[in-house]
Q: What sequence folds into this?
């Protein structure tokens, strides 16, 4: 391995593949796509594509909604509207089998009128709900154009608020004032490519004259903000994001004894906070000794915000984690604080309420025991008393998703349920544990038919992520169930360190110098699967995307003997240059800085692009990326594929030209991606 950092690319003969629209690079991509299509696009692929598209375009899917004012808003894509419809209805109508939808904006019609391939990227209603800020992305990029939209006339406001394409955050402060951060100029942009300043823009004035109200430093990741317009609790909060995990947090209130003051909250740099009403709610990422109390890592504690600003530190701890019980998020409601918890990677929803001098935590009744359950506010964003209703979403590997309302008491009110997309007959779910090299037990889920039968190794996909404190939890496997499980094959999901399944400490165990721990955990799960007899190395494939693409890239270069195939999606792979490519600078807190020699010493040990060696026995790998991905540069995937191919290894490559990092601008693109991936698995681990 190199003793110096090759971040400048001077020793990289494939640097030309980083030119996203370069003539030579695009020609190489087109040739690789044609080669891959010739290998994968057979009749079975076309049948899979049709099956996935039917699932994604089905009329009986759940139209997921958010409540704002008196309406429920939804964004919907189907065969007739591949780029989608932004629409709304009432709760009464939504409860029927055929809601009466009022279409506000047709993205396909907009694209036809303007000749631009827009993708809908969200909408923020104005305080009086008459207007909206519409975010439009070109083919799925993170960068967006923001336009003001009049809901009654269903048209963009001539001379209204408008922000050109950039990585932008915007919110209404009042009907005629916006707060926004937008990386439109070098001066307004951090080295990571995000907004460095927050500005206040008053209607009728030029965008360029918008007043700067908050600034981060150039070397910081970004400046973020949040606006609370709730009556009697109007405030703005600002985050100076030092890196991906550390922030300085400020609050400016419009009411009370601290009205008009910008106050930096005396908090640790690594902490999650919320204050929708009177209370400041915190969850530290590491043990925090404050006053006479120590708030444990991953706990939730609460104190009155004004008293905290005045110097009081008498927090109440309302949730304390255990080795297997971890907080995922919380939600302030009129009834108390709703806690979203993982208990050994199974969802729990509880309500924490003040009871005399303390707090009591009780489970919300009527929820299943073995599922993922998420909670979201259902309206009430302008209600002084907080939201009364909570929208619960319940899903599991073999359990179609359902949604229900909880009103603070009594039984749940089911709203919608998704259809079954695959035959569940014989499908089982089993939680297993592998043992890592340091003795840590690493849980993983195994899904498939007749899991007790290990007489013959079966084709198995192992999926993982292992980064950024993101948890992998049970979710309905509509597509994989149809294309993979129905055939009798198996699917496994690994809850390796680096994720958030067991709280912040689970994440911190695999970060920077210990990033390799997540990869080693994943290899331990692969060994356990083969040792159990349900599969074998020859019939075991792994799949991951983004940070998970880095994970499976390391399986190719560090653990090739454990796998029969590797599916690597929108990956990071060149860890010498990742900070030079698009948003990579913002992930230094996760991976380390390759331009610091001491950190490059460990980063290079999990940089797949630099770990490729000649004379090895590597399993076949399928690498995919997207030309409009402005988060993870497509050069990672291109260069890895080209280097492997030059060395004579079995590699297949596909690059789409629309979709961004998620690849989800329309259902046909998702269907193509899934069908290609499963075609690759059929021709590798399922063919032996």
A:
């Amino acid at each position: 391995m190199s003793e110096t950092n090759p971040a400048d690319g001077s020793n990289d003969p494939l640097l030309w593949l980083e030119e996203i629209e370069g003539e030579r690079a695009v020609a190489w991509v087109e040739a690789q796509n044609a080669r891959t299509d010739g290998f994968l696009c057979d009749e079975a692929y076309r049948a899979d594509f049709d099956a996935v598209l039917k699932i994604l375009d089905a009329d009986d899917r759940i139209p997921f909604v958010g409540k704002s004012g008196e309406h429920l808003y939804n964004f919907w894509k189907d065969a007739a509207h591949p780029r989608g419809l932004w629409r709304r209805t009432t709760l009464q109508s939504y409860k029927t089998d055929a809601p009466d939808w009022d279409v506000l904006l047709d993205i396909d019609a907009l694209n036809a009128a303007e000749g631009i391939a827009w993708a809908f990227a969200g909408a923020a209603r104005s305080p009086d709900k008459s207007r909206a800020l519409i975010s439009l992305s070109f083919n799925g990029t993170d960068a967006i154009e923001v336009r003001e939209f009049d809901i009654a006339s269903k048209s963009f406001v001539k001379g209204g608020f408008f922000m050109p394409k950039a990585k932008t955050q915007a919110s209404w402060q009042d009907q005629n004032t916006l707060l926004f951060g937008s990386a439109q100029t070098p001066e307004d942009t951090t080295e990571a490519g995000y907004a460095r300043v927050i500005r206040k823009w008053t209607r009728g004035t030029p965008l360029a004259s918008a007043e700067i109200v908050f600034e981060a430093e150039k070397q910081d990741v970004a400046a973020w903000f949040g606006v609370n317009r709730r009556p009697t609790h109007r405030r703005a909060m600002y985050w100076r994001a030092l890196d991906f995990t550390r922030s300085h947090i400020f609050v400016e209130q419009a009411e009370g004894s601290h009205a008009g003051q910008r106050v930096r909250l005396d908090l640790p740099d690594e902490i999650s906070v919320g204050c929708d009403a009177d209370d400041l709610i915190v969850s530290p990422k590491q043990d925090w000794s404050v006053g006479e109390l120590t708030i444990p890592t991953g706990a939730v504690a609460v104190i009155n915000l004004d008293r905290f600003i005045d110097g009081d530190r008498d927090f109440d701890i309302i949730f304390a984690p255990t080795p297997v019980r971890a907080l995922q998020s919380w939600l302030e409601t009129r009834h108390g604080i709703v806690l979203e918890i993982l208990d050994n990677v199974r969802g729990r929803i509880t309500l924490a309420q003040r009871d005399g001098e303390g707090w009591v935590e009780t489970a919300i009744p009527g929820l299943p025991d073995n599922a993922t359950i998420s909670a979201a506010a259902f309206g009430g964003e302008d209600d002084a008393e907080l939201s009364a209703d909570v929208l619960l979403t319940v899903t599991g590997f073999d359990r179609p998703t359902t949604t229900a309302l909880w009103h603070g008491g009594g039984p749940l009110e089911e709203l919608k349920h998704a259809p079954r997309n695959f035959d569940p007959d014989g499908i089982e779910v089993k939680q297993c544990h592998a043992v890592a090299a340091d003795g840590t037990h690493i849980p993983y889920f195994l899904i498939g038919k007749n899991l007790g039968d290990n007489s013959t190794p079966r084709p198995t996909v192992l999926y993982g992520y292992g980064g950024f404190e993101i948890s992998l939890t049970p979710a309905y496997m509509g597509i994989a169930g149809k294309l993979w499980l129905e055939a009798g094959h198996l699917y496994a999901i690994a809850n390796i360190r680096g994720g958030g399944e067991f709280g912040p400490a689970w994440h911190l165990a695999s970060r920077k110098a210990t990033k390799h721990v997540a990869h080693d955990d994943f290899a331990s799960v692969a060994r356990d699967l083969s040792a159990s007899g349900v599969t074998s190395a020859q019939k075991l494939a792994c799949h991951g995307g983004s940070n998970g693409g880095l994970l499976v890239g390391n399986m190719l270069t560090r653990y090739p003997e454990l796998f029969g195939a590797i599916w690597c999606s929108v990956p990071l792979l060149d860890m010498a240059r990742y900070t030079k490519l698009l948003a990579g600078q913002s992930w230094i807190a996760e991976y380390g800085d390759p331009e610091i020699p001491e950190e490059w010493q460990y980063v290079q040990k999990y940089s797949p692009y630099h770990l490729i060696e000649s004379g090895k026995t590597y399993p076949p790998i399928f690498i995919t990326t997207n030309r409009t991905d402005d988060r993870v540069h497509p050069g990672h995937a291109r260069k890895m594929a080209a280097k492997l191919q030059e060395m004579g290894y079995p590699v297949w490559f596909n690059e789409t030209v629309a979709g961004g990092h998620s690849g989800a601008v329309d259902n046909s693109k998702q269907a193509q991606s899934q069908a290609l991936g499963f075609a690759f698995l059929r021709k590798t681990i399922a063919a032996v």
Notes: The two ends are 35 Å apart (CA to CA). Residues 23-40 form the longest helix (18 residues). The longest strand covers residues 325-333.
